[in-house]
Amino acid sequence: MSNCVSVVLGQNAWSVTYTTQSICTLKGSTVELTCSYTYPSGTVSTTFWFTKNYAEGNPVSLSDDPDYKGRVTYHRDKKNGHNLTITDLRESDSATYKFRFITDQTGGKYTGDPGVTLSVTDLLVKVTPYSRMSTWKT
């Protein structure tokens, strides 16, 4: 007779998993950041992405940030996935983006670290023509 031990992984786990941790893209383009999240119990009441903390360390949703007005879209699916789309990217959008969710349980707030680092560049490729001078002796 053997002893069996049953382990339920992640039963009490809070986590956010980002699809990628670093993105480099061009000014004026569109980017999509994706994550999935887990939590032990309760119902998720609020989900959002942020880059800044305001009063008393409270993060502010990008949808409420005037710097992103009209350029962000959230999409939440039923399987605890969440996407952020930012359009018309600016170099000032270069930042670390983190996802936060809040449940209806006491103390049920969680921010996923380390987040996604976005680098927006105004890429300028300078091409210098190569000239080759040949000297022929006759």
What would your notes on this structure say?
The chain starts with 14 loop residues before the first strand and ends in a 17-residue tail after the last strand. It has one domain (15-117): Immunoglobulin-like (Sandwich). Strands 2, 4, 7, 8 and 9 form a 5-stranded mixed beta sheet that branches. It has a 4-stranded antiparallel beta sheet with strand order 1-3-6-5, with no helix packed on it. The radius of gyration is 23 Å and the shape is elongated. Mean pLDDT is 85; it is low at 1-11. 0% of the residues lie in helices and 38% in strands. The chain has no helices and 9 strands. With 138 residues, it is mostly beta strands. β7 (95-103) and β8 (109-111) form a beta hairpin.
CATH superfamily heading: Immunoglobulins
Q: Provide the helix percentage.
A: under 10%
Counted up, domains total 1
Question: Given the C-alpha coordinates, what overall shape results?
Answer: elongated
Protein name: Immunoglobulin domain-containing protein
InterPro entries: Ig-like_dom_sf, Ig-like_fold, Ig_CD22, Ig_sub
Domain Immunoglobulin: 20-121
Pfam family, one: Ig_CD22
